[in-house]
């Protein structure tokens, strides 16, 4: 081998990771650091055993119980666990000395962002508000009733506030109905069973991936009668008082229920109440009636549509 040739065998790995990790985690590791070298070797092995189009374990997952070496399962698992431990420890170290005003690296910036509001959550709130406008332009009669309620409770001389929320039952019902008819999260993220469980006669083994189909509950025909219809009145009693329905699980249920629920509810309410107080919403002349069929994705949102906003006097 000539002097200016080197063998491509991951020799640069540690240096490259050191540069990236200095930006991410603010630490540089010695080339002799045994723990860091071990992690790097495992990650390299992980990438070598992986296959972007999937492998036999994706088709027959239980094979890992018969031979855990198959398709590199054992290496993958060990590299993943080591990676998680490494990241968890680094984040915990950062939290101990975290100063919001002096971010040292990407982990600090991320911790600061997490304190403010995760991006995903901003998306869920703004998509929920978009769905509400969609049902407003499609239902001018309901919008009129909301304008009347806001005018009689808030008046025209001030803006709505959170204190008005209990006194605006029709608005509360209209927002809840938009959460129901087209939920931004039709299903929850995956969870994992910690022990063997039984559900309606089905055995669910420990370690199974489980997710909730929220849409099926929010649009159950037997419970709601006409789930496809946007009808806020279903959340009002005969005296016009807002009534909760335990089938409204658009923020999830159980231990992993949405942590931002009350914040989200308040933000959505305040935003919608303020805009409804000020504007009339309609479909611009000549535009087609917007579709209620959602745009799919990690969360859903309405299809693109235009709104005409006219200031109320
Ligand atoms: C209208 C807006 C929102 C809706 C409809 C919504 C809905 C959901 C749903 C369905 C889940 C999954 C629950 C489960 O897995 O069982 C979830 C999880 C979560 N949400 Fe929200 N969310 C909204 C806004 C927010 C906001 C504003 C925040 C934070 C400020 C937030 C923070 C979280 C967190 C941290 C989780 C994970 C909880 C866990 O796994 O323990 N969400 N949300």
Structure, briefly:
By secondary structure, the protein is mainly alpha-helical. Helix content is 47%, strand content 6%.
Give the distance, in angstroms, between the N- and C-terminal Cα atoms.
84 Å
CATH fold label of the largest domain:
Cytochrome p450
Name the strands of the widest sheet in spatial order. 1-4
Q: What's the helix count?
A: 12
Proportion of β residues?
Answer: 5-15%
> Based on DSSP secondary structure assignment, what is the total number of beta strands?
6
Helix content: 40-55%
Q: Summarize the helix and strand pattern as letters.
A: HHHHHHHHHEEEEHHHEE
CATH class value of the largest domain: Mainly Alpha
Question: Which compounds are bound in this model?
Answer: protoporphyrin IX containing FE
- Structural category is mainly alpha
Which architecture of the largest domain does the CATH hierarchy give at level 2? Orthogonal Bundle
Net shape: globular
Q: Radius of gyration in whole Å, from Cα?
A: 26 Å
* Poorly predicted runs of 5 or more residues: 5-11
Largest β sheet strand count, sense and barrel closure: 2 strands, antiparallel
Instruction: State the CATH superfamily name of the largest domain.
Output: Cytochrome P450
Number of domains: 2
